[in-house]
Design goal:
This protein is an alpha+beta fold. It is built from 9 helices and 14 strands.
């Protein structure tokens, strides 16, 4: 039976997405829930899993195409995987992949896999710095940028091709995320009154408290005691005192939120992301530190979801 593989339902704030990379081609066998394609939105990279086991019969959308919710990406022939497997065996026998390369690539996030495929880089040759041996996008970019050691006879040729003081340029298209960040910054400059204010806070007591308990804290909870949890706790207390700051406008109504979903800025290779720590008022210091660390890791390896990036109150 043929099954249509469609673009998943996108949130209201996301109108469309860009098809970045196909991980399968027509004739390839797939397992249920195996990632078929990466879609990049203004906020995050989405993976589209296979709805059933089978064989890719047809791909209808090419890389780089803008797609919308419900659009058909490919046709999957359900249950044909077992028949297709023997035909692929001789090819695999002729050129077996490097040991461990597939598992390393699979453990990497979609952003890292995309750069690996675009630059035709073997994941096993990249020095991984991510947790549990994951290859991050930064690892791949650093590997690609690393100059190869030329043979002795080639040095003279290289000098001719790239004379000293040459002014080279590299033009790289912006990702949707970076384009949206630039758009929002320009929009803010045009529509908002820009104001910067500075308020100094004496953190002597916080420093002393952290220094006194940080080793015991880490042994007990398995996470380091940073400053972020103190800042979030302080922000929640301030929002309780000034509830209008934790409110939002819906039409002609002001909605005062009686919960505190705090956005925490995280810097990534793709740009700044703000995952949301929901119901932060109910969390302990250890729970806040663990959650923020987990969100930062997911943001940097490209596995964070749209739901985790939307809906913050502050």
């Amino acid at each position: 039976m043929s099954i249509e593989v469609k673009v998943p339902q996108l949130p209201e704030s996301v109108a469309d997405a860009t098809l970045v990379t196909w991980h399968k081609q027509p004739g390839d066998s797939v397992a249920r829930d195996e990632n078929l394609v990466d879609l990049e939105t203004d906020k995050v990279v989405l993976e589209v899993p296979a709805p059933a086991a089978g064989v890719i019969k047809e791909i209808r959308i090419a890389n780089g195409t803008t797609v919308t919710s419900g659009q058909v990406l490919a046709i999957l022939e359900e249950g044909a995987g077992a028949a297709a497997a023997p035909a692929a065996a001789p090819v695999a026998a002729e050129a077996p992949p490097a040991a461990g390369a597939a598992s390393i690539a699979e453990k990497s996030g979609p952003a890292a896999r995309r750069v690996l495929e675009e630059n035709k880089v073997d994941a096993a040759k990249v020095a991984a710095t991510g947790k549990d041996g994951r290859v991050t996008k930064g690892d791949v970019l650093q590997h690609v940028a690393k100059p190869a050691a030329p043979a002795a006879p080639a040095k003279a040729t290289a000098a001719v091709l790239a004379p000293a003081g040459a002014r080279s340029e590299q033009r790289v298209p912006m990702t949707r995320l970076r384009a949206r960040i630039a758009e929002r910054l320009i929009q803010a400059q045009s529509t908002a009154a820009m104001l910067t204010t500075f308020n100094e806070v004496d953190l002597t007591a916080v420093n002393e408290l952290r220094a006194r308990y940080k080793e015991k804290f880490e042994k007990t909870h398995g996470v380091k005691l940073g400053f972020t949890s103190f800042f979030i706790k302080a922000a929640i207390e301030a929002l309780r005192r000034f509830p209008s700051v934790n409110a939002s406008i819906d039409g002609n109504d002001i909605v005062y939120h009686e919960f505190y979903d705090i956005g925490v800025a995280v810097s990534t290779d793709r740009g700044l992301m703000v995952p949301v720590l929901r119901n932060a008022e109910t969390r302990s210091f250890a729970e806040i530190e663990a959650a923020v660390g987990d969100y930062a890791k997911k943001a940097r390896d490209g596995s964070i979801t749209l739901e985790e990036l939307t809906g913050g109150t502050f």
